[in-house]
Design brief:
The protein is mainly beta and 525 residues long. Helix content is 5%, strand content 35%. The protein has a single domain, classed as Methylamine Dehydrogenase, Chain H (7 Propeller). The protein is built from 4 helices and 36 strands. The strands form 8 sheets. Strands 1-30-31-32-33 form a 5-stranded mixed sheet, with no helix packed on it. A 5-stranded mixed sheet has the order 11-12-13-14-18, with no helix packed on it. A 5-stranded mixed sheet has the order 15-16-17-19-24, with no helix packed on it. A hairpin with a 2-residue loop joins strand 3 and strand 4. The longest helix has 8 residues. The radius of gyration is 21 Å and the shape is globular.
């Protein structure tokens, strides 16, 4: 277990069958791209990619197409869309000499070469570190649709970006990028071709009324015209006080304008044990479309999405139609009395719920820093209405210790890793555990199941590859340059592996340069 260092906390802030579109709408990106974290809608951590290598060697360059330096605090998972790779970094190695000191950064890289195209550079808020954790990357994996990028910055700003950056000019209505990338109290900077183009911006603390905690982490769910995301509302720096108990936990925003159009009305705030870090999923149950969301109170909720058409003039309340409490005997009131209690505490959920064949698969348990050690993988019937806590559980499996990982469900098998450093293989239908195997130290990212393999990285820098089968068979164990807290991602025949320091683009029989592609492009000699 890592100590309470800046790096340790920063790492956890970024945790981390094919599902056809429920609506006929603009595609998120090309068919083989990976334009959001996990499968579209369902959040299943799988990929249809084939031909992915079983191993690679950064030192010799074997199977390494390219690599890009991310500084020393990269905890977010990459997304790949329309020839671009978007991934978080910090400013430990400035790519633009105008930016010195601590910054959170979103890099946009060329998919073929890894060279830097543009970057979103965001200074820290300063002051209370629990409102913007120092020295960590931009943690939220973006969601891409067409030429628009939607993401949450380290300052808890929901932004819409132009995927082409400033290459096609500074599009509006937001035109204050120069001031946005300058530290507070300093004059605006000149906007250059290497800078991001912000289309619109919604400041969640100011405009939605949240009080965030630690670092911003949200993977935005895009359905039609609306963006659905967790608010990151949480405790303050005392870890026992919720400053904004009435703030929403789930919000909906118009993707065209950045205007808040809906929010939940569950008043989850007083029951939040730490923060609201789980991003929502989407599925259809008996003809009804539902948004599945895990609150900071450790409860799984289902809401109806907003109807298609023109956005409402006033902020609506999302209609809740279903709820399931995965840990019903845990404390529900005065929850912060159990702060630092490793034997008894509320549960929380840092992973995303996965919708698969009418079921919800989710990991839940005690908070990794402040709660009990117990954790489970739960399988829940997504049907029904109202409170289904007493009837909805189909099966559960106890995990080793805590869990931040979103499950991968591949051909009837569930793969999930935990903070005890174990990878579990479970039958998706019955919950029978086929095997568990050590993969190194704690796992804070998620598994990826693809091409008949399971890929997973651990905090000790060990990257493991297994056969996605009922019988345990390890294919490779690779020692990398730094800890891993991100999820492996596959797109267009390439496997992307992220450590705190480096993004590796891995492809079978590739023997590319091992130099820092992004650093070379930005440094410019």
């Amino acid at each position: 277990m890592l100590g309470r260092s800046h790096v340790a906390r920063g790492m956890l802030l970024c945790l981390s069958g094919l599902f056809l579109s429920l609506d006929q709408e603009v595609p998120l990106a090309l068919a083989d791209d990976r334009p959001q974290w996990g499968e579209r809608y369902t959040r299943n951590m799988i990929s249809p990619e084939t031909g992915l290598p079983e191993s690679f060697d950064p030192k010799s360059g074997r199977n390494v197409l390219w690599s890009a330096s991310l500084g020393n605090g990269a905890y977010g998972s990459p997304v790949i869309a329309n020839g671009r790779v978007l991934v978080g970094a910090n400013n430990a190695e400035p790519r633009d000499p105008r930016h010195q000191g601590d910054r959170a950064i979103l890099l946009c890289l060329d998919e073929a070469t890894g060279k830097l195209l543009w970057q979103l550079v965001v200074p820290r808020t300063g002051g209370d570190v629990y409102l913007d954790w120092p020295n960590v990357s931009m943690c939220s994996p973006p969601t891409v649709e067409g030429d628009r990028v939607y993401t949450l910055t380290n300052r808890f700003e929901l932004v819409c970006l132009d995927l082409d950056g400033q290459a096609d000019g500074n599009d509006g209505p937001y035109l204050d990028e120069g001031r946005h990338m300058a530290p507070p109290g300093e004059p605006p900077l000149e906007v250059t071709p290497i800078d991001a183009d912000i289309i619109w911006l919604l400041d969640l603390p100011r405009d939605v009324g949240i009080y965030p905690h630690d670092g911003a982490h949200s993977s935005i769910l895009l359905i039609g015209r609306y963006l659905y995301l967790n608010s990151c509302n949480g405790v303050d720096n005392t870890h026992v006080t919720i400053r904004r108990p009435d703030a929403p936990s789930l919000i909906a925003v118009d993707k065209e304008t950045g205007r808040l159009v809906a929010k939940d009305g569950e008043r989850i705030g007083p029951r939040i044990f730490h923060s609201t870090w789980s991003s929502p999923a989407y599925g259809e149950v008996e003809g009804e479309k539902r948004i599945f969301f895990c609150g900071g109170d450790g409860v799984v909720y289902a809401f109806l999405p907003l109807p298609d058409g023109h956005p409402p003039d006033e902020v609506r309340t999302l209609r809740r139609v279903w709820r399931f409490d995965p840990d019903p005997t845990a404390p529900k009131e005065d929850v912060h009395r159990y702060h630092q209690n490793r034997r008894e505490s509320p549960s929380n959920i840092k992973s995303m719920p996965v919708f698969y064949k009418g079921r919800i698969y989710v990991t839940v348990g005690g908070d990794i820093w402040w709660g009990k050690n117990k954790a489970w993988l739960k399988c829940i019937d997504a049907k029904g209405s109202g409170d289904v806590t007493n009837t909805g559980l189909l099966w559960d499996v106890e995990l080793e210790k805590h869990c931040c990982s979103t499950p991968s469900i591949w051909k009837g098998l569930v793969f999930v890793a935990d903070c005890g450093g174990k990878l579990h293989c479970v039958d998706a239908e019955t919950g029978e555990r086929y095997w568990k195997h050590p993969v190194g130290r704690e796992v804070w990212g998620s598994t990826l199941a693809a091409d008949g393999k399971v890929f997973v990285g651990a905090l000790d820098g060990k990257f493991s590859v297994f056969s996605a089968e009922r019988e345990m068979r390890q294919l490779a164990s690779i020692e990398l340059d730094a800890s891993m807290a991100a999820t492996p991602v596959a797109a267009n025949g390439v496997l992307y592996v992220t450590t705190l320091r480096t993004l590796y683009a891995v492809a079978e029989r590739a023997r590319g340069p091992t130099a820092d592609a992004a650093g070379q492009a930005a440094g410019g000699s």
